[in-house]
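User: Please work through this fold.
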Amino acid sequence: MNKTIVAIIYDFDNTLSTKDMQEFTFIPSLGITADEFWAQCDKTSHEYSMDHILAYMYLMAKMSKQSGVPLSADKLREMGKGVEFFDGVKEWFARINNFGASLGLEVRHYIISCGLKAMIEGCDIAHEFYNIFACDYVYDQNGEPVWPSVAINYTSKTQFLYRINKGVEDVGEHKKLNMYMPKNQRVVPFCNMIYVGDGLTDVPSMKLARQRGGYAIGVYRNPEDASYLVDEERVDFYVKSDYTENSQMDEAMKAILQKICAQTRFWQLSEKSVKNNQ
C-alpha cells in the first residue's frame, strides 16, 4: 500500500531563518543597514505603485549593479550560505520524517517564500525540501538579472498550495493547474497539509489550508509578535520558533501527524466497510 503523503509547507524568513535572508550578507555588502534598505523598498513601492516584492527585487538588482558587483544566481546561492536558522531547524527534518514514517506517512517538506529561490538553494537546509517555491529572476548571457521570472507575494502564495495539492509543481504549467481534477487523483489532499508561518504574509495560506481541512502553525520569537494569528483564529497552534526535540513546535507537529494518521485510517475503514456491504 502506498504511504499517505503529508506536505509540511514553510514560509522561510523569520519562520526558519532568524531574519530576512537579505539581511545576512546582501544588505551588509552594500554598506547600508537593513532599515535603510527596506525603507528604500517602501519608497520605491509607493512612488511607482509597485508590488513590494517586485520593488525589493528591482532594488537588489539595481543596487548591486551600482556597487560594481552585479547579482547572479551563483552569487545569490553563495550568499545563501550565510543564512542562520532558529534552534533545532537543521535536525528537525530527519526527526519529523522518521516520526511520520513510523505512522505510515510520507512527509514532504516545501518552501513557499517571498524571498529569493537562489538564496534558499544555497542555504544549509536546501536539500531537505521536496520543492522550493520562491522569487526568481531571468538572467542574461552574462548571468545578470534582467526580469523577474517569479514574484510571490502574500496572496499569490496560495497558488502553490493548489500546485502541491494537484501535483502540478512546474511553475510554468498553468493549464493542468486550472483543469478540473477529481479529488481521488490529487497528490496531497488539503487535509494532509500543514502550513507553518510567522506573520501577516502567511495569513491567506493559513486561512486556505484550514478552510480546506488542513492545519496551520504560527511561530514566534516573542509571543506578542503575531498574537493576532490567535485572536483571528488563523492557526491551530501558536508556538515559539524552537525546533528542538520535545519543544512546543515538535509536540504540535507530531500531534497533527498523529491526527492525520488516525483520520486516514478512519476513512480507509469506512470506505472498506461500505464496499463490503454493497
